[in-house]
Amino acid sequence: MRSLARTFGTAAATLALACIFAPPTGWAEAGTKTLRFIPQADLRSIDPIWTTAYVTRNFGYLVFDTLFSLDEDFKPQPQMVDRWTVSDDKLVYRFTLRDGLKWHDGRPVRAVDCVASVRRWGQRDKLGQKLMEAVGEIAPVDDKTFTIALKFPFPLAIDGLGKLSSNVPFMMPERLAETDAFQQIPEAIGSGPFKFVKDEWEPGHKAVFVKNTEYVPREEAPSFASGGKVAKVDRVEWLYIPDTATAAAALNSGEADWYEQPPADLVPLFAGNKDIVVATVDPLGNHGILRFNHVQPPFNNLKMRQAVLNLVDQKDYMGAAAGDPKYWKTCAALFGCGTPFETNAGAEALLNGPNPAKAKQLIQESGYKGEKIVLMSATDQPIVHGQALVTLDALRKAGLNVEFQANDWGTLITRRTSKEPVDKGGWSIFHTWGAAPDLSPALNAALRTNGDNAWFGWPSDEKLETLIDAWFKAPDLAAQKKLAADIQVEAYTNDVPYVPTGQFVVPTAYRRNLEGIIVAPVVFLWNVEKK
Q1: In Å, how far from its chain's centre is CA 489?
Q2: Tens of pLDDT along 381-406?
Q3: For the purposes of burial, counting CB atoms within 10 Å of the CB of 509, is it exposed (0-12), middle (13-18) or buried (19 or more)?
Q4: What's the pTM?
Q5: Three-state secondary structure call for residue 260
């Protein structure tokens, strides 16, 4: 299919694209403006609290709304909230909702909905969990007002409610927000600028959204996730095209308007097309992650995790994930390079590696007896799949028994929830990435080591958790920086919850007739106009 689509002009390629993009009879009225968007992966989950997958986060921003939203200066601004106050002792927050907020089913947004939504988010999100430790009570006052009463001051309370990336504290109707946080919601009824058309959802092919004509945007200009969310198209079609060359052909031919994450090796195909813009709209970049399963052999053994750490050459991983060196750099800092908490403390193994001899010594010391290692990958996520192939090669060269299981991203994000042994559907390693806004000590979910409440992989390290707690209570930036270094030393030395594979930006490609694209670490489809 790749060679077929690269020709862009053959009858077979034309037929393939026609099959993908043929609209159903009566799909839209004449004059409807439709934005055809190729997302980074298939939409398998519509619950952005249940999963941290970015494709579901992006879905969430279309359908749901938030109490606060982060602006381009990384300051939380009121979104669904009209006004708010905090008591002099910083223990009681009072929020009043904006007028005219409605759910997509026509019912008004109530304070009790927001109370239930915050509680559910606080069970899954890592910053939310810390906030809930400080919460004494969350309660509605009336239909438009609710309060959060704290047991002790929590300076990041508003930052948490305005969190930019996964898990975003999206508001849902009470009946949905009361769903067990470890189960998925049955439907997506939000109050955001677009409505999800569930009847047209075809997992593995397409998701459809239509403009919410009753949405009342804020008056402020859009800035990251904050400000006025104005839907300037009538309909958005997410078109899942797992074959990347076919996706590139669709953009080149005008059958699609925007390709969120074209793989690096296909970007040159757009160079000669004056109607296509290739840009980097994410100003901060991403952090590659090699994640271990800490509760199942063999990576429940620290020495095995340290062995893999000694096998990693970030240049290999970044070349596979991002291609052209202008899009990436090596970075051993767990809180990202170029951030206030960047440090190389404790990262000697990664900075001086790879060291295959040391890795083999650690494997021997671990007592590894050839247990099967299941390395999961996703062929429809080039960033993930390229890195997984590098890991496969490194592990096999080290003499490890690796079974490579490559499916799609939807399968991977479902399977990674399993704590079962590998012979019962479990896993050992997978690759993913984190956006820069997710990397601070407050937000880095992959770094949390609170056992069953931790992110997929479930590491457990009481000392690391104690250091993170101390970071939250630090009196100033200098103290936070010192604690960030201590956290990183503990992580690299005594736990290795994951291995960073480097830092990179991802180019995006879109037709030149699109205007208003918001430069941000997250893809937002409001304010986008199709000329």
Answers
A1: 25
A2: 999 999 999 999 999 999 999 999 99
A3: buried
A4: 0.89
A5: coil
